[in-house]
Amino acid sequence: MNPLRKAVVPVAGLGTRFLPATKAQPKEMLPLVDTPVIQYVVEEAIRAGIDSIVLVTGRGKGAIENHFDVAYELEDTLRRRGKQEDLNLVRDITHLAQFAYVRQGEPLGLGHAVLCARHAVGNEPFALLLGDDVFDERDSALDALIAAYHATGKSVVGVQEVPLEHVSRYGIVSAPQDGSDAWDVTAIVEKPKPADAPSRWAVVGRYVLEPRIFEHLAALEPGVGGEYQLTDALAILAREGRLVAAPIPAKRFDTGNKLDYLKANVEFALKRDDLRADFGAYLKALAQDL
Q1: What pLDDT, in 10s, does the model give residues 61-114?
Q2: Alpha-helical segments (H) within the chain
Q3: Does residue 61 belong to any structural domain of this protein?
Q4: Is 83 within a domain?
Q5: 275 located within any domain
Q6: If you ran DSSP here, which 8-state letter would residue 273 be given?
Q7: pLDDT at 3
Q8: Residue 65 lies inside a defined structural domain of this protein
Q9: Beta bridge partners of 99
Q10: How many domains are contained in the chain?
Q11: Which domain, by its residues, includes 91?
Q12: What are phi and psi of 277, to 5 degrees?
């Protein structure tokens, strides 16, 4: 079976839920403490053994490319000032992986964004990571999906159970039949009403996909709002018997949601040795005043 070497990360979205902060900067560059969200996503892929990252960008996303590129002036300034630790930190970002960038010229949906990466990916399987979903880095979000791909040879969607009242926010797959670590998906529905949902198992922004997904994406008709939906192509894979679901055990933060973004900042800060004690004491004092 082909090894998994590449990951696609769509970053062309406008980030309207975080206006005005995203008026002049990509939403993916918003920080969790001092590290952009997009870097956490890239580092997750690298921990899973991926060494090539394809970022699907759009207009106004130059800051993302600059973040992973060499910063000559900054490096020279840090070197002259003797700030070796900061210099190493900046240089390490550049060497995280091999990066390629493709442009999505129009906001035509997630399916279209993935299709834009077709020539960069080629005829091999790839991971797909959505930047809004960030997982606790102490657990791997991708390992279970990669294991399911190697065990079945099929495309895999990462899922977690969500409350029934939240199913309308996600793509929802059919429930497991036998309690296994991965199960064949017989149905996948985009943002169903609770009464119509096939289960409470939600797709949460992590996938391992066969290259055949590109054929289905290229054949799609535009859906609501003129967009091409990835879920429609996944539904075709499900009908072909080529799609499985694998639960993701890692804790997830939806950083596209303001409340979850704030929670993620707090929890990521509390994991830091340099911040835990002072920040924890501040939070305890603050809680007493509420």
Answers
A1: 999 999 999 999 999 999 999 999 999 999 999 999 999 999 998 889 999 999
A2: 37-47, 62-67, 72-80, 84-94, 110-116, 118-121, 143-152, 213-218, 230-239, 258-270, 276-289
A3: yes
A4: yes
A5: no
A6: T
A7: 77
A8: yes
A9: 53
A10: 1
A11: 6-256
A12: -65, -55
